[in-house]
Amino acid sequence: MMAEFTFEGTSRTLQTPRGPLHYHEAGDGPPLLLLHGSGPGVSGWANFQGNLPVFAEHFRTLVLDFPGFGKSYSCEDNPMIAGLPAVLDFLDGMSLDSVPVVGNSMGGNIAAQLASRHPERVTRLVTIGGIGLPVFSPSPPEGIKLLVQFVEDPTRERLMTWMEAMVYDTSILTEEFVEMRWRAASDPAALADIKKLFNFRSLAAMRNRGTNAAEQVGALTKIQAPTLITFGRDDRVTPMDSSLVPMRLIPKCELHVFYDCGHWAMIERKDEFESVVLSYLLRDRKLAPVL
Questions:
Q1: DSSP SS3 for 138
Q2: Can you give the residue range of the structural domain that contains 32?
Q3: Is-contact 82 106, C-beta < 8 A?
Q4: How wide is the angle at C-alpha 153 spanned by C-alphas 147 and 155, nearest 5°?
Q5: Is residue 39, in this structure, part of any structural domain at all?
Q6: Does the residue 133 lie in any domain?
Q7: Pairing mode, if any, of strands 60-64 and 31-35?
Q8: Tell me, what DSSP letter sits at residue 78?
Q9: What is the C-alpha to C-alpha distance for residues 281 and 52, in angstroms, rounded to an integer?
Q10: pLDDT digit string (tens) for 32-65?
């Protein structure tokens, strides 16, 4: 029978030179690192609590809160910039040399940075949106525009409008789920941190796609780890055509697209997501001999 895990029962804190990093831990076996996305009220638990029991059956599953999110330390810089140093601090503090990494959105971006700049630390890479360059879609995308509108004027209605853009099937946005995100998102400290990442200035930067395009393309070619890119076909935050560049340039790359799915594949297509990702992560395991 699959174990049930609670927030309190899995909650842990690691002290690092930059400040405390909060994370959740469940399961035994080889380590697996899960990295959450960005957005109002997000945390490792908010993104991956539903997937934790399945992954914990096979892995010592570690779900990290980035600086500026959840219960980790607040960051002075843009949380995207603070993310990679925090992951390195976490791996070092946990005495983990190399791990498979699953990253959603911003977490996928930071996981890709880790795999590109420190290839010895990543054995397999799985991303859920958040990687690549849009080829056909306009920039900034609808989901990011709605996110900035919430950050600049944080009301529950604007939060709900943004959350509806995150999914294909809005019925998954239960009152309990929305209330959890609203409580976390309306915290003044959390709002201050998320505003460092999403604001009118960042929207203007996204309109100029060419600024860092060459650097991003170059980084993709340096990822040595076998990589699985997953996307929701109806993603309105990182549109599916963003997958075409990394799918072609990452040397050992596969692409899986979930139909009728938005930006939160691990929530909206939970069973299929877990099946696809577990199958990919477990490829390295040798089958036990039949007796």
A1: coil
A2: 13-137+212-284
A3: no
A4: 85
A5: yes
A6: yes
A7: parallel
A8: -
A9: 15
A10: 999 999 988 899 999 999 999 999 999 999 999 9
